[in-house]
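Bench notes, afternoon.
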Amino acid sequence: MQDTKNMATSTENKKDPQPGSMEEILLFRKIQHQFPRQFRKAFPDKLAAKSVIIIPSITLDQEILSKVSGHIHYEERLLCLLMLLRMPRTHVVYITSMPIDPVIIDYYLHLLPGITRHHAQQRLTMLSCYDASAKSLTEKILDRPRLIERIKKSIPSGNVVHMACFNVTKHERTLSVKLDAPIYGCDPELYEQGTKSNSRKIFKQCGLTVPAGYEDLKNEEEIVAALGDLKLSDPSLRKAVVKMNDGFSGEGNAIFSYEGIDESTEWKPWIASQLSSRLKIVAGDLSYKEFMYKFQSMGGIVEAFVEGDIKTSPSVQCRINPLGDCKVISTHDQVVGGEGGQVYMGAYFPADEAYSIEVGEAGLKVAEALQKNGVMGRFGVDFISVKEKNNTWKHYAIEINLRKGGTTHPYILLQFLTDGDYDYENGLYLTANRQTRYYYCSDNLRSEKYIGITPPDLIDIAMLHNLHYDGTSQEGVMFHLIGALSQYGKLGVVCIGSTPERAKNFYEQTVKVLDGEC
C-alpha cells in the first residue's frame, strides 16, 4: 500500500506545463529537436536497444468519426507495427481504448519472420484504457495519469524511445511532453498544411493540376457563392463537391447537383433555395444542419466534380524522415464508393503502370514542398486521374492527408514480411530476393452474415481453408480489424500475390470462404 501511495503522490506532485501553453510547445520542440540524432544513430541499427510507444488514436472530429462503423476497432490497424518486434532488441508498447483479444495478438506475432513468439512477447507490452467512449484514445490516456506512469515503467532503462501515432494533434503533443518521447510525425502547429484549403494552395505551388474551385470558405453563404461562380465559369458543369477542411475518408464531403437548372435562371438565388435539398452528404446520418455547423467550425472548399468515362483514384504515400529526406513509399489505386465515389473502400498496390511513375513524381514534389515548411512523418496525397482521348492521363491533385491512412498498414505489413522496397521510379515493389509483389487490400470486407464471428472463429476458418500468409512463397492473406467482425460484420484484409491477378484471386477466395462458412 505504501508503494501505491507514493506513486500516486509522485504523480500528483509532478508539475507538467499546461496543455497548449507556450511552455509546453517549447518543451515539445526541444524533445523533437533531439529526434534527428536518435534517428541517425538507432534507426539503421536493427540491434539497437529501442522502444516504440504506439498510439493508434484517430484524433479527428469525433462526431464525424462516429459515423464510421466500428471506428474504435480502427485502433487495431497499427498492429502492423508489431512487426517491429522482428528486431530482437526492440520493445513495443501498444495502447488501446479497450483490450484486444489475445487471439488477435497471437495472430500477428505468428507472422513475425525469424523471431519466436515467446521472444517477441517478452518485448511487447499491451495496455488499455478500458474505455469504449467516443473520446479519442489519446484524450483517454491523458485522463489516466497512472496509465501514463505504467507506460513509462514499461520502457527498459537505456532504450531510446519515440512515439508512433496515427495522426498528431495538440493532444499527442501533450502526451509526448508527459512521456518525454519524440513523435515520428508532423508538429501539430503545422497541421493546417494538410487541410483541404491548404492542399489546393500547395498543389498550385508545385505546378500540379487541381479541379476548378475555391478554398478558405467559411459558411453556407460562401458555399452558395462558390457554387454559383463555378457554374458561371463552366456552364456545362453538372456537379460540384463541398468539402470540410478536416474531413476524412470522404465523411466530410457532400455532392451538389446542378441538374435541372435553366440557363436563364439567376444561378446563385436558385442554388441558395436548392442547397439543402440537393446537397447529398456522404456521411448518410449527418443532417444538413449538422453538416453546415461542422463546415462553419472547420471551413472548407468547393470544387468541380471531376468527370470522365475512365476515371481512377490513385494515391501516393510519402515519408519525410527526421533528417529531412523525402521518399515516395508507395502508390495505390484506391477503390472508392459511397455518394459520388467519395469514400475509401480499398486499394490495389502499386498503382496502374500507365501512370504510377507520374503520380509518384507528383507526390515527391508535394513532399519536398512540405519538407521546406517543416513537415515530418508519413502522409498521403490523393489524385483523380482521367484517361483522355489520346490515351494519356490527366491527374488532378485532390488532397493531402498529414497522417497515416488506409494504405499505411497494408504496405507496412508487406515491407516487414518481405524485407523489400518500392521503387517509384520504376513503379515496382521488389522483395529482398528481387521478386515483384502486389496486393489488394480493404478495410471494408463487410456482410451482415459475418456478424457473430468471433476472433477465434475467424482464425479457425482461416486455418481450415488455408487463408493465411505463406512465408516461403511470400504470398497469401492477412486479416486486420478482426475485433470489428463479431459486432459489425466488418473485416480488413491484405492479399499479397506475385501478380495483381493472384492478389485479387486471394481476395475473391477469402470472400467465397467467409460467405460459405456463414
